[in-house]
Structure formats: structure tokens, C-alpha cells
Amino acid sequence: MRLHHNIMKIGLVLMTLTMLICIVFSYSIKLNYPVFLRYCIETEAVSNQADSYNRLVMELQYITNSNDNRLVNQVVFKEAPEIYFRASETLPGNNSLGFFIKTTTNRQLGISMGRYSLRTIYVYQDSYFREDWKGEKELNTAVLYFSDGSTRNVDLGRIILYSETNEEGVLAPETTTSSSDFSSSTSYRVEDNVRLLNFSSPLLGNAPDFMYFKIDNINFTDISGMEYEKGNGLRITSKFNNSQASSYHYDVYDIRPKLNYKIEDGATKYIRVYNIRWQRSIYDFKNTLNYLKERGAI
Amino acid sequence: MYSGYRQIFWGLFLCTFHINIGLIQVIPAFIGWLIVAGGLYTLYDAYAYTSFRKAHYTVIAIAGISLFGFIADFLGKRYEILTYMPILIAIVEFLFIYYLLEGSIQYFLDAGEEAVAAGIKSNLQIYMLVFIFSNILGCIALTIFDQTLLFIYMCLAFILILWLMRIVSRLKKIHQEPLITMQESEINDK
Q1: Is B20 in the A-facing interface, judged by CB distances under 8 Å?
Q2: pLDDT in tens, A124-150
Q3: Gyration radius of chain B over CA positions
Q4: What is the mean pLDDT of residues A271-277?
Q5: Does an H or E element contain A176, and which?
Q6: I need a surface site. Which of A135, A168, A207, B67 has the fewest CB within 10 A?
Q7: Considering only residues 58 to 117 of chain B, which have any Cβ-Cβ distance to chain A shorter than 8 Å?
């Protein structure tokens, strides 16, 4: 029995030590506050009364401890306190509690990633502007209201809320393709002779190095002066080279630049380009640890 | 002997398979552990081996931890430390299994059943090694919350408890009649 006794003793020490090390580790990686991803996005606002009511205008994601069961239920942007946004962590129709689901405290919130969980806040714009509003508003800091009554100021990066009227142009969209690797291409048919001016977006300066954005294989910064004749095709392509981005580059990009051009009569027109979107799928615990370290949260 | 092992067997069964009606857990795990403790007390009462007494106390400790977890869960508290409750219970359970089988080995040796004792000995050795491995793996899995590791840990934990139930069930069936008297066991234990 001596051998058994020794195995018991060694096993006991090993298991206790492992448990203590794991407890210390899990406390050391515990987040003191939720960490929001940084955004560099443009999104269209609900601009007037006639526009659809209660529309999803953005999705914000944050990383928190897996046992954090608070929910965000309101978002107020410091730069636009007059606009009322409604926030919810569940999509409509997705929050029913069945009979066999245990108590709400045990409900799994968000996507589980090791000790953390990735939550999504769906932000709806409930109110409309009293008068039709056209233009751009930059939102940076949000005040988040949690279900336990606490609030938190969060720097979300740059979110551009815009509203515009769709004016008739001479570039008619023909085909659009976009792929899950965040590459996309849009073809336009030129209906009148045009001279391209530039791409304008407040966010183009914040675009990551691994973004490639071209018109007919010409880089977007060098398009000024390019001319197209009536009947020509114009192809805009965007691509994000995922391999150049670090595996924990969790910033979200959704840039919607305006392509400004001049038509023959000298008038300046623009068309907005969509689908320049990049967001790394977040599921890996190790990458998340690196990301949180980089953000200084742990 | 028979009734003691029978109680331990059914106690372990109730700890493993919870009966839930809707949201309510009819028999929480700590009740199962109290039944196991009762079985161990019966064994100690009949044969007075110190191993059975030690096993009895460890199982009472498990029941206490389990009751604490049950109350915390009922009140909806999600303490960080509760994540490690299964590991803590498993460490104490490890002691219980050791003392239970040590007591049983002693009993069969005293009864002159060397073959049975040797069988339990070899079982105990492998069992302890697998148990240690499973528990360390479980601890790491709970820390990094890796779904694959957690699944392997849960499978191993399930196999281990079934294995233990099989050992107890066999011990129960070996001798339904006592092989030695209490006086003999007391003398041997001293």
C-alpha cells in the first residue's frame, strides 16, 4: 500500500497546485471593465420622419468576463446627445425564454471565448430628426448604460453618421460582388463622359496598411484626372490582405467613401462606394488575450 | 458490509444523475453525498477501520462544498471561485476514493481474501493515475474554457465515476455476508 499512499500524496499535491495556479491565472486575466473594439466606420442615419422607424444603425462589440451578466440597454453619444439611440444585446425575436431554460443568470450571453465573452450591442435609432438633416456627424465617445445601473464612458474610435439624398448620377451600378474574405468589387456603366476627381471620406486617412482600394487597378489616391467616355465600364475593387494584419487586429472598418467626379457640363457629382468592410472574426482565446494586453486591459 | 456498499453505490448514482423537474432539481448532488457518507458510516460502524472513518469525513466535506455550490447557484451568485468547484470537489473525492478502497483492501486482507484485495489494489493504482490526469486536464480546461478540452474532461470524469460505481457494485456483490466480525477487524486495525 506504500506505493498507493505515495501516488495519493503526489496526486493531491499536483492537483492542488494546478488548481491554485489556475485560480491565480484566471484572476490575473480578469477584466476590470468591458473592452470595446475600436471602430472606424461610416453608417447611415435615419434622417427624417418618413424614413423607416427604429432601424439598426450599427453593431458594437465588446469583450467582457464570461460571468458578467450585465447588459447594455442604452447608448448616448457625447457628440450627439440629441439623437436617441436604443441599444439591445438581443436581436428582436431572439430573447424569448423557454420553459426548460434555466434562470436568466445562467443564460449564456454573447459568444464564449475562454474566460471572456464577446457581446454585440445592436444600436437602433429610434427618433428622427425634427427637420430633414443632411450631412455628417462624427461620434467618438459613448456613454453606455448597463442593466445594473452603472454607466461607462467608452472611446469607440471614429463613427461617422451620415445622411444624404440620393441624387441622380451618370455612374450606373451594374454588378456588385463581395466575398467573405472582405474583398469586393463593383462595376459601373458610365452614362456620360466623366473626369474623376477624388475619393473623399473622413476615414480614408485611418484606413489600415493592409487595405487595397483601386479603380481599374489604379490606386485610389492616384485617380484624379482619369477620364471615362460614355459607354465605358468602371470597376472599383477593394481588398484587405488578412495575412498582413496581426491575428489580434480586432479593429472594425467600414469605410464608405464618395467618388467625386465632374461631368461634361462642369457639375460635380458623387457616388458612394460601399462594401469596404473588414472585421476579424473573434473566437480565439489566445488572440483575445494578446489583444487585451495590447489595449492595456490586463 | 453489503448495506454500506449499497448505500455508497446509490449515493454515487444520485450524485452523477441529477433528477430535474423543469427548473427544480429534485435531488441535489449533496443529498447523494450524504447517502454515501451514511454508507461509509455503516461500514465504519461495522468494522471500525480508520480508513472508513476518514472516508466518511471527506464525504461530509464534499457534501458541504456541494451544498454551498447549490445555494450559490440557487441564489444566482456567479462567484469566480465557483468555476473551480468541480475541481475542489474532485480533489476531496480523490481522498474519499483512496480511503474507501484502502479500507476495503484492509477488510479483504483481514478476511484472507488476498486475490480480491490484490484486484482492488491494481484497480486503485490505475484509477488514481487516470483521476490525477483527468483533474489536471479539467483544471486547465476550465481556466482557458476550451470546449474540446472541457468535453474530454467531462467524458473522463463520467467514465471515472462509472468505473468507481462498478468497483463498489462488485464489492457489494462479492460477499453479501460479513467475512469477519467487528471484534476481529478492531484487533486487526490496531
Answers
A1: no
A2: 886 666 567 788 899 999 999 999 999
A3: 17
A4: 90
A5: strand A171-178
A6: A168
A7: 73, 76, 78, 80-81, 83-84, 87-88, 90-91, 94-95, 98, 102, 105
Q: A63-116: per-residue pLDDT in tens?
A: 999 888 899 988 999 998 888 888 888 776 554 444 444 444 445 678 888 889
ipTM of the complex as predicted: 0.89
Write phi, then psi, for A287 (nearest 5 degrees). -65, -40
Find out whether B92 and B61 touch, Cβ atoms under 8 Å: yes
The closest of A210, A226, A215, A220 to A262, measured between CA atoms, is A226
The predicted pLDDT at position B174 comes to 80
What are A160's strand-pairing partners? A42, A138
Q: Mind listing the pLDDT tens digit for each residue in A18-76?
A: 999 999 999 999 999 999 999 999 998 876 666 556 678 899 999 999 888 899 988 99
CB A52 within 8 A of CB A98: no
Which of A15, A19, A113 faces B132 most closely, judged by CB atoms?
Answer: A15
Give me the pLDDT at residue B3, please. Answer: 85
Domains of chain A from N-terminus onward: 35-164 (2.60.40), 171-278 (2.60.40)
pLDDT of residue B181: 60
Angle (CA) A59 A76 A137, round 5°:
75
The cell for B1 is 458490509
